[in-house]
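Review form for a predicted model. The reviewer records the input and the model, then writes brief findings.
Reviewer: anonymous (R2)
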Amino acid sequence: MSSRITIRDVAEKAGVSVSSVHFALSGKKGVSEETREKIRRVADELGYHLNTSASLLKRRIQNITVCVPSEDDNTRFYFRPVWKGIRSFEEKNPEGASFHNIMFNPEDPSEARWEIRQRVADGRVDGLLTVGTIDFTGDDWAEIARKGVSVGFVTVAPQNFRDFRCCVESNYRVIGRTMAEMIVSHIEPYGSIFLSAGNPGWFSHAGIVKGFDEYMFENRIPNMVYKDCSYTIDEQNYEHFKRAVSRPDVAACASVFSQGTIMLGKALEETRKAGRIYAVGSDISPESVDMLRRKTYDAILEKNPYAQGYVGLQTLYEDLVGQQPTGAKDGRILIGSEIVLRSNLPLFEEDRTRVLLV
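Model under review:
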């Protein structure tokens, strides 16, 4: 009977993915002890034993697909350093891995989703590193899991898929709390705050806003906060930013994401509010660095996207080839953030990024 039982039979009866069965029975990290024991019991009941020799043969070359937003256009402010981190790991030519990179436009990821579906259906994907905002359906994720693909995320994981091997992200709530503390320590209690809050449907943006609100509430900060949930660079959003920073009661402003930082900085400069109200941006880019040097911004909170890309791919690779990846039991790995000021800006110059973040 055991010769007729497959790993998919065990997965179906245990109610987990094929990859979870493999990790549980091979003794690798990536599943909870409770799930591991459940899978072992089901495997014993069915008489299934993992074929380790076949598994080793399968892992000889691992095909890893990386699908992350483009480093061009408006996504460049954040994802260009993510791609630099990814390429830095790929350039090491790690043994037993082959990489296929896909860039996509977050406003229309349909072509990238189609290519991944085809590669998964053809059995050309052993590991997938992507972002939670790619908007796969539940059926897409179910098929990826059924095929035994190990999945890793950078920046954020989606709400409709939890069977991932790793998710490398910043501690967004801490960033939000830091942003709030910096602002209220520089303005009077009667001054209002304009916050470029990004997309409330994206965990990274919403997490920072939540941390910001928590700090304000817990410390009974009386300052009024105006929030704008625009998350793309366009003329209408820009005009709204200009009107917001021109309000006579606004004493400080901040943005939780890179595109908002660029729009907000330009609005401050055009309205001649730069240097007159306290401003905190997000994410280092050539454009935001120039604004910091010009004193448009007083500080920038850096989420270390280079490290997210590098560590995300490194962790997924180690997981696939049987090494023990570093990270929390639930697969989440938090990358530290930094406060960038004009005084410490040389530490964040492009040629020093790799040394600093990895």
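Findings: The CA atoms of residues 299 and 341 lie 5 Å apart.
Further findings: The chain has a mean pLDDT of 89.
Recommendation: see findings above.
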